[in-house]
Amino acid sequence: MGFFVRVVVNAFAIWIVTLLPALGVVLVPFAPGEWLQVALTLLVVGAIFAIVNSVIGTIVKVLAFPLYILTLGLISFVINGFLLWLTAWITGFWNWGLRVDGFWLTVLAALVIGIINWIAGLILRPRPRERRD
């Protein structure tokens, strides 16, 4: 259940980022491009982004641990931008997916996605049960 929620939240965050034209992130939906194809494309891109974050992101973050200490964690913005760029690169092999303009705009878009994921995490986090004594 956790992975599905992460995919839906990622899809929502990517949709919000694509609505901001200044960030240069464009979603190319499955043909013919109706609302259902847009939603399915967002879910597939959200799943790819979740897998890239889980697998490659973990490896990169472990290898970049000294840079986290050296930059006081600011390297995480660049790493998250790289992971979003990698997702766009993976979906670029097909006629659908994400298209990004530049790396630094992708870093900014990844920052917006991270903020949306953080807010969704606060809302969707399971609340601890109260103890009855």
Secondary structure elements and pairings:
Layout: H1 2-18, E1 25-28, H2 35-63, H3 65-70, H4 75-91, E2 97-100, H5 103-124
Antiparallel strand pairs: 1-2
Helix pairs in contact: 1-2, 1-5, 2-4, 4-5
Keywords:
133 residues, mainly alpha, two-stranded antiparallel ribbon, 2 strands
Helix content range: 55-70%
Helix and strand run: HEHHHEH
Mean pLDDT: 89
- The shape is globular
With helices defined by DSSP (H or I, 4 residues minimum), what is the helix count? 5
Compute the number of strand runs. 2
Give the N-terminus to C-terminus distance in angstroms: 31 Å
Structural class by sheet pairing and helices: mainly alpha
Portion of residues in beta strands equals 5-15%
Structural account:
The protein has 133 residues and is mainly alpha-helical. It has helices spanning 2-18, 35-63, 65-70, 75-91, 103-124, and strands at 25-28, 97-100. It contains five helices and two strands, in the order αβαααβα. Strands 1-2 form a two-stranded antiparallel ribbon. Helix 1 crosses helix 5 (103-124) and helix 2 packs across helix 4. The two termini are 31 Å apart.
Short overview:
With 133 residues, the protein is mainly α. The protein is 68% helix and 6% strand.
